From TrEMBL:
Signal peptide: none annotated. Residues 335-356 are annotated as: Disordered. Keywords: Signal. PANTHER family: METALLOPHOSPHOESTERASE, CALCINEURIN SUPERFAMILY, SERINE_THREONINE-PROTEIN PHOSPHATASE CPPED1. It comes from the Bacteria. This is Metallophosphoesterase. Transmembrane segments: none annotated. Residues 346-356 have a biased composition (Polar residues). GO terms for molecular function: hydrolase activity. The lineage of its organism: Bacteria, Pseudomonadati, Pseudomonadota, Gammaproteobacteria, Thiohalobacterales.
Amino acid sequence: MSMKRRDFLKTGGALLAAGSLPLSLVEVAFGKESPQNFTFAFISDSHITHIKGNEFVRNWDMGLKRAIAEANLMTPRPDFIIYGGDIAQLGTKEEIDHGLELMGALRGKVHYVMGEHDYYVDLGDYWRKQLGPDYYSFDHKGVHFVVLNSIVTYDEWTHQDWDSPMARMKEMARLDNPNGSPFMVGPTQREWLRKDLEKVDRDTPIVVLSHSPLQKIYKGWNFWTDDAEEVQALLKPFNKVTVLYGHVHQIQYNQIGNISFHAVMATAWPWPYPSTYSQEASHLPKLTVEMNRADPFFERDATGWQFINMDSGNIDVHYTLPDNSNRVVAFNEDKGHPEDTKYQAEGNQIPPQEHY
């Protein structure tokens, strides 16, 4: 569709009047009036949690319902929707069915990414039965999209003598999972990706959709993909590559070589930042806002609306944040990486906490 960016932001502003939106709206722009311009919405990390019978945790349900309702009201209509993984909390049939029932209210095509909470109780069997393959690619208006399952791990961990499949799931469901195992894409998918990218011109913009970040941020929380460098090497020949991921429930951005990394926010809850939770060394890139959350279960913190403008293959991200200043993370052509255009000085941040 053809639309001026100024007008797009104006229509987005009408939605923002209702408050922060727990989803992302992405504009891929090839020029101000190009017929190739298009938008897509991104919803992630709903963690639908079954209690008993037909009871589910209401807060997580409401976050997803709100995202769906607002996606359906968007003008312009997004060309499609990405769901970024962790539709369920413990991967049960009840949770996946309930989440997909809610997602059924979305108007438009949905492309799904698998999260670890969808996977480790039955190794994704029920998710795939309902939704199809967990890695694939598609093309849309000159952009090549790649969906990866980035949350598999080593066979010796996956297939050890567990007391039950749910015991394995609960290990991976923890944030600080010392008995877990690092996520990865794995050799099968990497070989598939190599063959898939052989057919793509080097000047074609690439957007990779994963659940874990395809970079190494903080191993203690599995904000980490063990074979990240191998995946990045396959993407290195392309001029413009963007990785969009969920999993971390907060705003993050980074640049590694030709690849721009941007996290999307959750519809369930926020995770605290590693720098506030532990004194261990962290590889965390600069955060948009060092919130240092005093209450990590404020339901709208780390959930929100973001507009992503992708002009000439690089992106700038407009965030609306609860109880904080709106932020813009834009690709700086001179520096060759994204940066927060109004990064908060230490004295202007929300005061840090010392413990949880």
